[in-house]
Amino acid sequence: MPDYRLDAEHEALRKTVEEFARDAIAPVIGSFYERCEFPYDIVAQLGRMGLFGLAFPEEYGGMGGDYFAHCLALEELGRVDSSVAITVEAAVSLGAMPIYRFGTDAQKNQWLPGLCSGERLGAFGLTEPGGGSDVAAAMATKAVLADDEWVINGTKVFITNAGTDITSVVAVAAATGPLDQGRPEISTILVPAGTDGFSVSKKYSKVGWSASDTRELSFSDCRVSADNLLGERGRGYAQFIATLDEGRVAIAALSTGLAQGCVDESVRYAGERRAFGAPIGEHQAIAFKLADMAARVHTARLAYYDAALRMLAGQRFKKEAAIAKLVASNAAMDNARDATQIFGGYGFMNEFPVGRFYRDAKILEIGEGTSEVQRMLIARELGFRA
Ligand SMILES: Cc1cc2nc3c(=O)[nH]c(=O)nc-3n(C[C@H](O)[C@H](O)[C@H](O)COP(=O)(O)OP(=O)(O)OC[C@H]3O[C@@H](n4cnc5c(N)ncnc54)[C@H](O)[C@@H]3O)c2cc1C
Question: Between the CA of residue 173 and those of 1, 61, 96, what are the distances in Å?
């Protein structure tokens, strides 16, 4: 039976992030959210705390910690605000991690110090207008090798962190060869921000995550050096599958945080708000909602701890990552709905964070693989061709 208690180091980190999120993010993030403004100053403070470098070795400017530490930090950030949490998640899990896992020494030395410090952000461009869940088969972005340069043409949609003032690099998945067994040869190419032929759209107008940066990317005869290939040519599919397996654990942690934030706010409110002569938490319908919400958080947390600890132990964790993502994103969505109900009319007001949680929860069942995709992955691990 694995031991799910946090050791002293992980607990100290969790507590530090909890306090920072409560004291420095919670009081101000609502106004960034309403203005759809990226919170540069908060990101810089998180960078100085080392939160972008938790999972990377010190030689690249990281903190020498592990991916579980990254997940714990995301849970505590998600408990207060998801725009900030997804900015860290995407920068680390999708931006920096593929470079660390698959990059050459030169690529790691060039990009990781900036990304680990949080002074620069990375992004991962996979999804396209024609397909997200089935992006490999639908891959329309093409890169052709000519005169020792990759020439990239195509469009990516919904890319997190791609257009901030501090974005330094986007890892772009592109078709680099003909179709074989239903999908093209896919490779990942690092495209520095500001490269000629690479442009980012205006920020999307989104339902939630309003203080985070999400853009459409266009590549029009965009040329980068042949050396910008990440890892081996043709390994792009395997790279993004591995990246997303890990990323799902991180999204599960963020989702657990949002679900816990709903419990925190609702328990406090249900103890204060009175109706029919008693605090509303004394009415069984509300008390049972709170109980269900606490049970969902507990289950979600155990699921992501389990997936993360298997990952760190070098064990297969694909099924557990998909289960954690499925369970935790459902918990976030259900808890956000219940918390908003507990707050009554105030739940619909921007003055309270539960309305923001409600708007932020839905994407957790969609991004980095929808809930249907998670079920397909779990079913495949059970031996069915789903
Ligand atoms: C705010 C935001 C940030 C994002 N950030 C990034 C990012 O940084 N990088 C990046 O590359 N992408 C990013 N994405 C994209 C995201 O990962 C995709 O939206 C997601 O994977 C779903 O793809 P899709 O939108 O094309 O939906 P589709 O794949 O078109 O799916 C539509 C629906 O059909 C269902 N479906 C599809 N196939 C099946 C099937 N075989 N069986 C049952 N149901 C099926 C899906 O579950 C879904 O409900 C982001 C998206 C958003 C909204």
Answer: 39, 26, 15
Interval between CA 243 and ligand 1 midpoint (Å): 16
Query: pLDDT of 96-155, one tens digit each?
Result: 999 999 999 999 999 999 999 999 999 999 999 999 999 999 999 999 999 999 999 999
List the catalytic residue out of 246, 368, 372, 381. 368
**Catalytic-residue membership of 365:** no
DSSP letters spanning 340-352:
HHHTGGGGGSTTS
Q: What is the DSSP letter of 306?
A: H
The verdict on the CB of residue 98 being under 6 Å from ligand 1 is no
Contacts of 168 (CB under 8 A, 6+ apart): 111, 114, 115, 120, 121, 122, 192, 193
Q: Are 115 and 152 in contact (CB under 8 A)?
A: no
Question: Which two structure tokens, joined as six digits, stand for 266?
Answer: 């609702």
CA distance 82 to 264: 15
Average pLDDT over every residue of 40-69: 98
If you take atom 16 of ligand 1, which residue's CA is the nearest one? Answer: 367
